[in-house]
Amino acid sequence: MPPTTTNLPPFSIMCKPVCGTCNLDCAYCYYTSKAKELYPDVARPEMSDEVLEAYTRQYLQAMPVQSQFMWQGGEPLLAGMDFFERALALQSEHKLDGQTVTNGLQTNGTLIDERWCELFKANGFLVGVSIDGTPQWHDYFRRDHAGNPSFHRAWAGLDFLKTFGVEFNVLVTLNSANIVHGGDIYRWFTNRGAQYLQFIPILERDPQGVPQPFSCSGEQYGRFLLDVYEVWRARDVGRVSVRLFDSVMHNELFGAPSTCCYSQRCANAYVLEFNGDLFVCDHFVFKEWRVGNIMDRPLAELVLDPLIERFATLKTDLPEACRDCEYLPFCHGGCPKHHWPIGPDAGRVNHYCEGLKLFFREALSDLKQLAHDLQAGGGQGEHASASRSVAPNANQGPAARPKRNEPCPCGSGRKFKLCCGRK
After folding, report:
1. What residues contact 239, with CB distance under 8 A and at least 6 apart?
2. Per-residue CA distances from 350 to 89, 175, 319, 334 (Å)
3. Residue 282 annotated as catalytic
4. 308: part of which helix (H) or strand (E)?
5. pLDDT tens for residues 249-293?
6. H helices of 212-278, where?
7. Which residues are bridge partners to 144 per DSSP?
8. What distances in angstroms separate CA 114 from CA 28, 104, 163, 172, one per listed residue?
9. What is the pTM of this model?
10. Catalytic residue selected from 144, 246, 282, 373
């Protein structure tokens, strides 16, 4: 008997309509090489109308309560405005009665103009813009193919979003150039009106497992978080959302983190490539982790494939170093990509373990108290903070306890009573 939506685990998808194609050539990017690695015979890796229709229809059927369409690249705006207008039309055509449908998009911001903002605003898009700080930090690694800096183009895109009232997040990748400037970067963005921030540490390795020079260390990551926390705690609680802080508070209130990398199990945030290939995770888009193709097998079948469960064990079968850790409920071993060696080896270590411990030792008890203050205040007042994200499983942070039949704030797509509310 084919699977039905009533027995499917909740899942999200990051759709790549142009694979790794991008107008920038960021030194630390792990995705722009994917087209050549996976599809060397494809001259233009662009999603066809046929694949777009199949994806839209199958995803809406699979997540009948809440469907979050998330678009990424490469640079997803290179798919063109016509593509997204077709996507929106197909969502309207296949939307189920009572279903909540949203769209999020992650971009480098350099192509955003008035027309894009009109589309985003009219259709309620949440846009994540990647900016690594001030020009001297952003442009260190984020340049175009001609070697030209990209900051001013990215910031112009962000200004367009603010002018048109489009909801946006700022995504800051943490690397060897900006990692020691936590407080300065946080103040710089928040002083210019940014209210939703994600700090994403960069870690890429050479074939021998040695971190690339642009990567940041675990200790650097922990100290960056503490620098940000000091400023946030002093002046911005209830005004600015920082994704990791919100995830900790969400975990304290609902028993589950709001980000996939800190969840107990993370095999529910997939990548859909331009041709319909489904992969287990954005960081594991390799041939061995290809689940199948939605043009051959429907999503409702692919997400139950045994390969998904095998991938899940990279998270659920914890490293020995994590099993007795006092911070395990708030980290759960972190992202499997950050482990070395990557795989099931019980002796593996998370590259950012010591940094997270450093942060938790200093900030965890205070964050837990803030979470309960928030809950007592019904999500209003001094400690109110609502996180938004275009990252998988991270669209909501702590908020007033939802009603039983409302969508769960963890972003699973299930009703609260059937998800975090069960805890």
Report:
1. 195, 385
2. 43, 17, 9, 7
3. yes
4. helix 306-316
5. 999 999 989 899 999 999 999 999 999 999 999 999 999 999 999
6. 218-235, 243-254
7. 24
8. 29, 18, 9, 24
9. 0.89
10. 282
